[in-house]
Amino acid sequence: MSEDNTPAEDPVAAAEELLAAVEDPQTAEQDADSEPLPEPVVDEATRAELARVYALLLARAGETQVELRLDATRRACEILGDIHTAAPTITITGTNGKTSTARMIDSLISAHELRVGRFTSPHLHSVTERISVDGAPVSAHTFVRIYDEIAPYLEIVDAQLEAEGRAKLTYFEALTVLAFAVFADAPVDVVVTEVGMGGQWDSTNVADAQVCVFTKIGLDHQAFLGDTIEEIAATKAGILDRSVEDSPAPEPVAVSAVQDEAAQAVLDEEAARREVPLAAEERDFRLLERQRAVDGQLITVQGRRDVYSDLFLPLHGIHQAHNAAVAIVAAETFLGAEDKPLNQETVAEGLARVTSPGRAELLRTGPSVVVDGAHNPDAAHVLAETLAEAFDFDYVVIVLAMLADKDSDGVIEELHRSADVFVVSENLNSRALPADDLAEAAREWVDEDSVIVASDLNAALMKAIDLANSVDAKSPGIVVTGSIYTVAEARLLLGRGEEG
Questions:
Q1: Does position 68 have pLDDT exceeding 70, yes or no?
Q2: Under a CB-based contact definition with an 8 Å cutoff, are residues 451 and 424 in contact?
Q3: Could you give the CA distance from residue 29 to residue 32 in angstroms, rounded to a whole number?
Q4: Cα-based torsion angle of the residue sequence 490, 493, 496, 500 in order, rounded to the nearest 10 degrees
Q5: pLDDT score at 285
Q6: Which residues are in the Mur ligase C-terminal domain (predicted)?
Q7: Distance between CA 81 and CA 75 in Å, rounded?
Q8: Which of 65, 125, 332, 389 would bridge 21 by S-S if both were Cys, CB 3.0 to 4.6 A apart?
Q9: Is pTM, for the whole model, over 0.85?
Q10: pLDDT tens per residue across span 180-221
Q11: What is the largest CA-CA distance in the chain?
Q12: Do the beta carbons of residue 487 and residue 114 sit within 8 Å?
């Protein structure tokens, strides 16, 4: 997960907040060109049931209270009928780009007329977004129904763990089991899972992946993963392990994005030790060409089996083009018989459908507002590059709100050259960095007059819009960033509460 969806101190209150973010079925509208939206919540009873289930999940240990284990999740999956082996799996780990890459792989495989279940984290507005079937978040009704069906089995595992003096299933462990149960119930042909944190002991690693995907590895979650790129890469390489006895999954194949030299060396070493073939970007496949296009870009990718030319990708930034190259090779590896390329038209169709909410997403114009969940220096660097390349802003207001446990100084270092003004604020998360502390960090990089403090995100957006409208600029832009929570709150404030 890029950031942790930490349960609130009051699970019931947090669950009730969920209700406000669920679209009223009478007012929800779907953009003609957008990804299908989730099945609407049809009545108050279903809304209340979703809040009940969410409160039960939030009452468990949160995602920052990590248990370094696989056996607890495995027990639950096994007593539910080995739901983690019900469909072949593609697992994605890395530091940045996991969710976008997962969505691309999902879309590419769906275009080949296979039913895909996708498990990603964190969510923007509703926990149901984390579990997708057929490219759309699972309905609230299904989420509640499957949870109630598996709840007695979760309680059995909880009791076993407590009898052993161990912690009960955590929020993320329970949610992982729920996802596999939803996919087995659907049923789906393929499961695409995004690792929550690390890889070796992450709950998603209970499934033996047929294809193991590594996006760009950087520094994040050092308290759990290690202080060096090498340590983090080694932990993430744990997705190559086989976890299921007499696993029905074939021997895995690994696909890696371009990595820093140190990370690539570790991945190569770990893959060789396990005798897993690894296809690395720039070594075995590559992005050949890309050019800016309206609402996205055109790319050409040298895959392992063919060159896929002039593909329209409706996302901005060179990082998304590289993510697409990785996704295409992952799909080639999973779908294609040996040496058989994918159909060019089907690949084009799959990529053209991709969306990635909260990632360099243009929410409105007049003035333009772009939201991006960059929360670490690497992601902020990518955002700065994307702004320079894909948006013609001649005046930029950056609205920044971050969590206290993130590298605010590193993020501001990467973004300060892109900003004419910072409007710093706080999101609603309990771990939010106080606005005054964030302002102090920003003043280390820009003039004091270029930093404005707003008490909350609504005030920050209003101030940013006033600034953009008042300057003598042809193309002013507002960029909201610093956390996925900041993005989620901004989307709601700007009337974009749906996931897709």
A1: yes
A2: yes
A3: 9
A4: 40
A5: 97
A6: 358-472
A7: 10
A8: 125
A9: yes
A10: 999 999 999 999 999 998 888 899 999 999 999 999 998 766
A11: 68
A12: no
